[in-house]
Specification:
Structural class: mainly alpha
Length: 59
């Protein structure tokens, strides 16, 4: 039984998987943050453009 426990404790295959999961979660989090920032900036630019165009007098 101790041999099985020691073998399980020394096995590092699961640690690599955990590393990849954490790394992937970080990348997804950064992508969501970037998307939110771009979406907010685009909405503000659209509103500013609309305000500018509404103030023009079409002749």
């Amino acid at each position: 039984m101790m041999k099985l426990i020691n073998k399980f404790r020394k096995d590092e295959n699961g640690a690599v998987t955990v590393d990849w999961v954490v790394l992937t979660a970080a990348v997804v989090g950064l992508a969501v943050a970037a998307y939110t920032s771009i979406e907010t900036g685009a909405a503000e630019l659209t509103a500013d453009t609309d305000t500018f165009l509404q103030a023009r007098d079409p002749n």
